[in-house]
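== Item description ==
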Amino acid sequence: MPYVRLSEKWPHGEEWIHEAITETYIPLIGALNQLRKEDVRFQLTLGITPILAEQLADELVLTNFASYLQNKIAVSQQDYERFHNESKPELAQLAHWYHTRFSNVLRLFEHDLQRDIIGGFRSLEQSGHIEIITSAATHAYLPLLSSPASIHAQLQTGIQTHQRLFHTTPKTIWLPECGYRPGLEAYLHQYGLKLFFSETHAVTGGEPIGIAAGDNFITPYNIINEKFNVPKSGSPARPMTTYLPYQVGASPIAVIGRNHQTGYQVWSNSWGYPGDYDYREFHKRDSVSGLQYWRITHNQSPLDKKEVYHPEWASYKVEQHAEHFTHMVGDLLRNFHDNAQEYGIIASNYDTELFGHWWLEGIDWIQMVLRYMSASPQIELMSAKNYLLHHPNEEAIQLPESSWGTGGLHFTWQNEQTQWVWETIHQAEQRLLTVIQNCPAPNADQTLVLNQALRELLLLQSSDWSFLITTGQAEAYATKRIQQHRDRFYRLLDSLEGSPDVALAIEAWEQDKVFPDIDFHWYVAG
């Protein structure tokens, strides 16, 4: 989720975060709290990037979110009346169903959470039910940053934000896009991190599989495979497995690879659960309200042939699919144990917004899976941190450069359409280093400007911009945001040659209000 506070409206801008809160984050808290209330013993590893956490905690974003949700409630009521007057009882019933759904989200937000979404997740972590893991500050694609100072600043800012909002020091990190290059583990160790995840092929060798292979998954990555002839990375297969953690090189940092069987089952457009014909169709929207009233019907059905959605049919499929997934995980773990004579772990990593947003029924599915797995004698639910605590890594591995982007390397973010983005970022990285070196004892105004310049650089480095350009989903918007942060960055630094532009620094801060405790000293060359 890019930083979109006060940045335009639908289809791009702040409504992205409102939509994600409505469909994913508040329903997820509600589902996990219900399990906790039922005393279901579960643990879940949840990545909340620092830039997402900042938005979930921002008072203005939350105020605008409440207005967004109240509008959804009003729109669904209008749809109910319209469909009732048009004698379309099935659609009227669905509009009422949406009205109830949106109203429940508002109740959870206003009353149960007291408008404190971050506090809701923090409470689940404090009770031992989830581990919240961190990431780079703005989800920057670390392998392509040219300066060690940028990696330091991304990690330090990310960890500082995590500590401020969640009141814990993270031990596990999600490397943005599973992007790894040899040597990153040394940075992680320096900041007290113990564990990260990688894509499957980085551990097992061989050609990329799943998303990285360009398979038809429920993600925008599919667009890249359709637009480009993407070169695939590959290496000889090796006797490593994603069922075990490994020590990365000579470092004490552990890595766990993503399990591709469970990934296919949940993410595949072709035969994964979200493609079931009784689940809601994401792409067809009502021409008046924009609400989605239809089911998938058939994966080859044109949008004008979609049939009306039935929530009760979907609920029946959720239960079936949760039971199937639980048995599948149990079988995989048992087979590994029988062959290897040791216990294994399955790390099933997904974009959180797959659940609830792309796959409406996904939050209900997660809740049901956790309920079933907690009762299984073959499966122990455990967070990444706790798994490593009880099953420390013993064998070392040399990981290659890799990601879960299309082709398994860096193409999704670095290609002929985005090369200018990386040139812009690299030039800015070097400029900030030079300015800091030439300003060894800054006064208060210079410090204010340098801190804001670092914020602008971190926002400029967000991997979302190059991703949106590559997919073509929002190229103009992403280009505008890159130019905005670049221009502010250079205006701030240029002002240090004379009178520091404090007014611009304050104006830029008021626009974004992100990373309030940032310190430009975190941008260090070593």
Residues 311-340 form the longest helix (30 residues).
